[in-house]
Specification:
162 residues, alpha/beta, 7-stranded mixed sheet, 42% helix, 21% strand, globular
């Protein structure tokens, strides 16, 4: 499903997941796909948590797993750095004030489709439920979650060197 949604997106790809690391590991040739999408005019955004932030440290204590939250964020940072200079590809860190809300809800948007993950209290993100939403009406669930991601983006800060 992920590959299909990414392939079908023409205007917007928003990856507002606290770590987004799985994209680089599970999507074949993801760098090439992102580059190709951006070159075709698609806006691509990666919103991440701060790897050294207080919320990240707290989440690491809660999850207590070997592949820490900060390591997962750094996997994405390393991969996004390889796309530096590609027009249309942007990356930001969520503001510290919003991080406590961001860590518990991921929103991935593909034009008029979205995958939304409300994180369960003690598990890692990949153990949480995933909902597939489609934009069928103004003001519906799709718009509400998309607005949430946009609000987080607006208050976020660019990643240095981006």
């Amino acid at each position: 499903m992920w590959a299909q949604l990414i392939a079908n997106a023409r205007t917007d790809l928003v990856f507002a997941g606290y770590t987004n690391y799985f994209l680089w590991l599970e999507q074949p040739a993801f760098h090439a796909t992102v580059r190709s999408k951006a070159e075709a005019g698609c806006r691509i955004r990666f919103l991440l948590g701060e790897p050294d932030g207080d919320v990240t440290q707290q989440r690491e204590r809660i999850e207590d797993v070997a592949l820490t939250v900060s390591t997962r964020i750094r996997i994405t940072l390393e991969n996004v750095a390889k796309l530096k200079g590609v027009p249309g590809v942007e990356a930001r860190f969520c503001s510290p004030e919003d991080a406590v809300n961001f860590v518990s809800l991921s929103v991935f948007r593909f034009d008029n489709d979205a995958l939304v993950t409300p994180h369960l209290s003690r598990g890692a993100g990949h153990d949480s439920p995933l909902m597939h939403l489609r934009r069928n009406q103004a003001g519906g669930l799709f718009d509400r979650f998309s607005t949430h991601a946009e609000e987080l983006w607006e208050s976020a800060r660019p990643i240095e060197g981006d």
